[in-house]
Amino acid sequence: MSSSLRLQKVEKIFKRFDVNGDECLSRQEMANLVTAVNPRVKFSEEQIKAILDEVFRTYANFIDGDKGLRLDGLLRTYDDGAGDVDRDYRALGMDLGSDSASEEEEEEVREEESRDGVASGRKEDAISIMNESPGFGPTKWQQSVGSWAVSPNNGIVYNDTWRLIEDLEILLRRVAVKLEAKRKAAGKEGGNEEAKPVEELGSEYPSFQKSINELRLKADVSRNEEEAFDAHMAMGRTLFEHGFYEEALISFKKARELKPLDVRPHFRAGNALYSMGKYAEARNAFEHALDAERSSSPRFASLLPQIHINLGVTMEADGMLLCACDHYRHAAALNPAHSRALKLLGSALLGVGDYDAAVKALTDAITMKPDYADAHCDLGSALHALNDDDRAMGEFQRALDLMPGHLDALYNLGGLLRDSGKFERAAEMYTKVLGIRPSHWQAHLNRAVALLGSGDVDDAKKSLQEAFKLTNRVELYDAITRLKMLQKKPKGFAALIPSPQRDSDREAYGMSPIGSGATEATTVVVDSSRFQVSTSKTTPRQWMAHALHIRAFQRHTRLNRCDVSMISREIEEAKQKSVSKAELEKSLRRMLHFLGAETFQESIKAINQRIIRVLDRMGSGRVDLGMLFAILAPLCAGSVEKRKQIVFEALVWRCAGTDRIAMTDGKVYLKLLRAVYIPLHGASDLWEVHGEVDPATMSYEQLLEMFDDPDWGFGVMATLVKLESGDRERHGGLACAVCSYAIVGSRFKEVTSEFNLCSLCYSEGKVPANVKKEEYCFKEYDSEADAVKEKLSFLVRASPWKPRSIISL
């Protein structure tokens, strides 16, 4: 049918039911339309209400205030397959009159009507706009069935299916009565009210399962494949709504066997699997739904955005935010008015550290839906990350106005206030978070920081102790110990705030770095030239600074737990040398398979911000996979020699060489390596490559020589390896003279003044203000055992032992 003819028909239907002529269909006018185009169905008030609620919710962007649905909204319902224009036109007994179609158009209409009759099975059972319920009057029990049963394209079609669902509802009602009795009994005995229905049924579950199987047999013996499919889908939907996901999945699988190319059973099976926590299987089901959609009827095109959204949510559940972003973008492209797709896209972009893009997506979502509290909260977080704190505070407050108990908004607002120095208000926000969720240990920890900032040391200590009870982390134990020590020897207000020694850990806790923990009166920062080393084994200050930053990144991404041989496997299986970020994320997920979803998200965010941005400076969305592997290899687990071999292997693979790489590629690699791990400090900027092709090649030995060069290569590798093996080493409770934390990792002792520094304070050039010298000379101890050995050797050299002479009696 031509689009102009279709539009004329929709306009005539619209005008007939626009009784008051306000160019909108109110709820009552829409109810009249639904009833008129389904003359054989006797709707209850509840069913009409459910239909209208779904229409007005789904097409909210086409609603004109209190007036109702506009003409373009009604046209959109037909475009989405919520009804058949020709069928409704016939049901209303309408014709185009003077604007009638040409003979050619009328023939096209007849052909479409013929196809509709075949597609619907028994034509007399086919129902039109906003409803696919059967042609007999609904009974009281049908009013309890979800609105999906009368929804467009997804509802119940056949009479026998309604009867089957009636039997299922009766069975489920009986089960609900039993469960309610059990819950009451369990409540008296302190039972778990959050248990799944299957678990609560216990020994009675096999009997319930047998009854369900009997109903499935009735569905199997339906008159034709269409009715059997309708019955299994309806059973699956009903069981899903009652929380019986395993049984629902069986029904969806049966429906899928009947119609492998139908989108709906794949989609519903994916939802059931996701609810069961089987994210990998759910992802496969949604991907099959996308494959089926490409060969299915256009009437299910409206389901495509939701498939992409659910697939994205499933990807997120496995920590794969970059892949999720791709699917949210697809959903937003298919339906630009889909506010949830844009919100989810913005939240995922926020999760990977693309703050500017996140702000845009979240702002668009709020423009479409101003009362979207979650979107306001995430927009506030993105703005705070971009240092736009005034707007961020307004967004957090807006989220709280819309939803006063919004936990994330309270927590994030507390972080913003804390970073702004408004410690008392920050403590209030964290207290509210703990009122909602007492087990939120990050809130306990950050509340302690805020209380320290406001000078309330006693309550801060209590909050730290609560956080320690919930997590048992050694860093919190150190903070409590340090706080007790500082209370005995107060150094002023600023000295009570924890030092940044654990900044990398605090970021993992949900805290932001909070600056130095010592006042200007107690600490001074001296020039690097005044820091000398007493032996060649002592790490220079600047090298330690670089190594600490790299080590923090390594631990944050958990690359130190990834065997470097995993890169070799990925190289063998890789089909392309330039991949999208989503494909890259899949490769990283295989390498970091041992990480939970949230931890993997943190890892991807760090890798995206520090490495992928450097490799994708032009913003193409694609990454050189070989170069990325070569940059990751030095930080993975394994011997130093093995890591270097994998670096060379990755560079050879991307160059399609045999046993040598291009000289230019080797230089570019080292430049990128320093740009990623030693920004603004190395000589990488001197090695500019202007696009010329250097015919010279480089062997593995030549690359090693350049790699180990301290000035031009990655000479910090040796110091990094030292940190990997000893950055958890403790020194008998010795505290740093600057930050007062227990020294963990290398200890740096000033050889004449004999004060001790932790690695971080040493790398930052901090010394106690009461020790004023022109030059400071340090010796490094990797462990307390090294210090003891040195003392013993000194005693031996100072007082050599001599045997006493034997006196003869």
Question: What's the gist of this structure?
Answer:
The protein has 809 residues and is mainly α.
- What class do helices, strands and sheet pairing give? mainly alpha
Q: Count of DSSP helices?
A: 36
Q: Ranges with pLDDT <50 over ≥5 residues?
A: 97-143, 490-520, 681-691, 803-809
Distance between the termini: 131 Å
The count of β-strands is: 14
Radius of gyration: 34 Å
Main beta sheet: 4 strands, mixed
Residue share in helices? 55-70%
Give the overall average pLDDT.
81
Query: Based on CA inertia axes, which overall geometry fits?
Result: elongated
Spatial order of the strands forming the largest sheet: 4-14-11-12
Strand content: 5-15%
Features:
809 residues, mainly alpha, Recoverin, domain 1, Serine Threonine Protein Phosphatase 5, Tetratricopeptide repeat, two-stranded antiparallel ribbon, 36 helices, 5% strand, elongated
What topology emerges from the helices and strands here?
Layout: H1 3-17, H2 27-37, H3 45-58, E1 63-64, E2 68-69, H4 71-79, H5 85-91, H6 103-119, H7 159-188, H8 197-201, H9 205-220, H10 225-241, H11 245-258, H12 263-275, H13 279-293, H14 304-317, H15 321-334, H16 339-351, H17 355-368, H18 373-385, H19 389-402, H20 407-419, H21 423-436, H22 441-453, H23 457-471, H24 474-488, H25 503-509, E3 523-525, E4 531-533, H26 541-557, H27 565-573, E5 578-580, H28 581-591, H29 597-615, E6 622-624, H30 625-632, H31 640-655, E7 661-662, H32 663-677, E8 697-698, H33 700-707, H34 717-726, E9 730-735, E10 742-744, E11 747-750, E12 756-757, H35 759-763, E13 766-768, E14 776-781, H36 784-798
Parallel strand pairs: 4-14
Antiparallel strand pairs: 1-2, 3-13, 5-6, 7-8, 9-10, 11-12, 11-14
Helix pairs in contact: 1-5, 7-9, 7-10, 10-11, 10-12, 11-12, 12-13, 13-14, 14-15, 15-16, 15-28, 16-17, 16-18, 17-18, 18-19, 18-20, 19-20, 20-21, 20-22, 21-22, 22-23, 23-24, 26-34, 27-31, 29-32, 30-31
